[in-house]
């Protein structure tokens, strides 16, 4: 999983079109056109841990209310809401994986089902992590302090293709900007979410990479994963061709839009026009291919293209990795995490540590139930944090603040400034 955090500011009505229309035209073959369905989750953080609730799906109207900051059931506002076009409505991350995973899913329905299920479990895990680590600001202006959230809500929108019409199964995970803490609804501290991106991406990747059912089905069909990248080795050399075609379609659409805007200044293209551009771009990029009319035909086109490129599915089952949780050298992981983080920056936060731990566990070939993997990475994260030096001399520093470093980083930086003089952590504070 890769990518950053996107902020959505503006009207809820415009966000509704994001769900109902702002996806590849090819997605219409999978999703009921115009239905705008999004999965809805609510997480409550209490003394007894997390409680994740799967709420009824959102249609276009209820999604619009959710984005605007209203309770979907009661239609009551969640606290004092801003009504200007610059108000933050939600923050979004994309739960995705290597393109070869989507290619394999297009070839085998059983892999598709396992991949979709693993992605959904990954999204729920990310939502839970954010609920535990997100904060909101409490107090009068100028004297605000950050407090942990007690309730967080999220929506998940599923797409099956890229905007260019290639296989690309991914989820848009949107965290509502209204969170509950200290007795009322407040605004999410969005900077903290941005600073948590390493953990978000790490969890999203490892949750799928280590998923037993997903890995079992891949192995049953003979597919092997590269330990570092996660790419399916048998499909890796074909992914670029699909990406190239998607980029070509995107360039065509951009050209049509630029020409239309030049001829219609001050106007915005509608949904029907954008879909016409998509169909035209598809036909222009693939002149020898009939534009698909349903999901089955689209999948047949992908399979046909893979065959034309020379791909042949494996005929012998692959072996699953055998690296168990008990074989992980926890002290070595702690040292490796500090070394990797220190090679990129001089300080880091708890989310940076968690993300690096997740990537190491995934690359080690661990295949385990989600609860087992979480216990492992939480222990490794805690060990690493305890082994770090703290640059902020207080126990209640927010998790997103990059207040951790290592003795080696401190020594190297001091040596660069004043060679031959030994430094202590107290001097750094």
Distance linking N and C termini: 35 Å
Tell me what portion of residues adopts beta-strand conformation.
15-25%
User: Can you count the beta strands?
Assistant: 12
Overall 3D shape: globular
- Number of alpha- plus pi-helical segments: 15
- Run of helices and strands: EHEEHEHHEEEEEEHHHHHHHHHEEHH
Order of neighbouring strands in the sheet with most strands: 1-4-8-7-2-3
Q: Which structural class do you get from the secondary structure elements?
A: alpha+beta
As a percent range, the share of helical residues equals: 40-55%
Poorly predicted sequence stretches spanning 5 or more consecutive residues: none
Look at the structure and give the mean pLDDT.
87
Which value, in Å, is the CA radius of gyration? 24 Å
Give a quick account of the main beta sheet: strands, pairing sense, barrel closure: 6 strands, antiparallel
How would you briefly describe this protein structure?
The protein has 429 residues and is an alpha+beta fold. The chain is 46% helix and 17% strand.
What is the strand and helix layout of this fold?
Layout: E1 6-9, H1 12-20, E2 38-46, E3 49-58, H2 60-68, E4 88-95, H3 99-107, H4 109-133, E5 135-138, E6 145-148, E7 151-161, E8 167-176, E9 178-181, E10 184-187, H5 190-194, H6 197-209, H7 212-220, H8 236-263, H9 271-285, H10 295-308, H11 330-344, H12 350-363, H13 370-387, E11 389-390, E12 404-405, H14 407-417, H15 425-428
Antiparallel strand pairs: 1-4, 2-3, 2-7, 4-8, 5-6, 7-8, 9-10, 11-12
Helix pairs in contact: 1-2, 3-4, 4-6, 4-7, 6-12, 8-9, 11-12, 11-13, 12-13
């Amino acid at each position: 999983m890769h990518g950053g955090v996107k902020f959505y500011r503006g009207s809820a009505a415009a966000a509704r079109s994001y769900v109902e229309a702002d996806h590849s035209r090819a997605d219409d073959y999978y999703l009921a056109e115009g239905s705008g369905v999004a999965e809805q989750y609510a997480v409550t953080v209490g003394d007894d841990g997390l409680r994740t609730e799967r709420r009824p799906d959102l249609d276009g109207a209820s999604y619009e209310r959710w984005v605007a900051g209203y309770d979907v059931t009661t239609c009551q506002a969640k606290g004092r809401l801003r009504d200007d076009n610059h108000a933050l409505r939600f923050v979004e991350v994309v739960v995705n994986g290597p393109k070869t995973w989507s290619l394999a899913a297009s070839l085998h329905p059983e892999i598709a089902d396992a991949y979709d299920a693993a992605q959904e479990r990954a999204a729920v895990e990310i939502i839970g992590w954010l609920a535990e680590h997100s904060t909101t600001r409490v107090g009068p202006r100028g004297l605000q302090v950050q407090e942990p959230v007690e309730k967080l809500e999220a929506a998940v929108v599923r797409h099956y293709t890229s905007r260019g019409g290639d296989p690309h199964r991914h989820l848009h995970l949107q965290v509502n900007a209204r969170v509950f803490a200290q007795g009322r609804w407040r605004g999410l501290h969005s900077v903290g979410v941005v600073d948590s991106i390493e953990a978000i991406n790490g969890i999203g990747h490892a949750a799928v990479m280590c998923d037993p059912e997903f890995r079992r089905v891949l192995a049953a069909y003979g597919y092997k994963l590269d330990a570092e990248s996660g790419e399916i080795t048998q499909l890796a050399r074909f992914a670029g061709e699909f990406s190239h075609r998607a980029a070509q379609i995107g360039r065509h659409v951009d050209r049509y839009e630029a020409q239309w805007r030049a001829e219609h200044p001050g106007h915005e293209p509608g949904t029907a026009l954008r879909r016409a551009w998509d169909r035209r771009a598809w036909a222009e990029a693939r002149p020898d291919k009939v534009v698909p009319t349903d999901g089955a035909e689209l999948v047949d086109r992908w399979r046909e293209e893979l065959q034309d490129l020379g791909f042949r599915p494996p005929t012998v089952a692959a072996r699953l990795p055998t690296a168990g949780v008990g074989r992980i050298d926890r002290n070595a992981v702690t040292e490796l995490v500090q070394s990797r983080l220190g090679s990129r920056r001089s300080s880091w936060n708890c989310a940076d540590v968690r993300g690096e731990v997740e990537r190491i566990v995934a690359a080690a070939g661990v295949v385990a139930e989600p609860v087992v993997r979480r216990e492992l990475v939480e222990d490794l994260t805690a060990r690493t944090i305890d082994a770090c030096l703290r640059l902020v001399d207080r126990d209640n520093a927010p998790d997103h603040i990059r207040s951790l470093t290592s003795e080696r980083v401190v020594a190297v930086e001091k040596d660069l400034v004043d060679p031959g003089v030994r430094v202590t952590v107290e001097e750094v504070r």
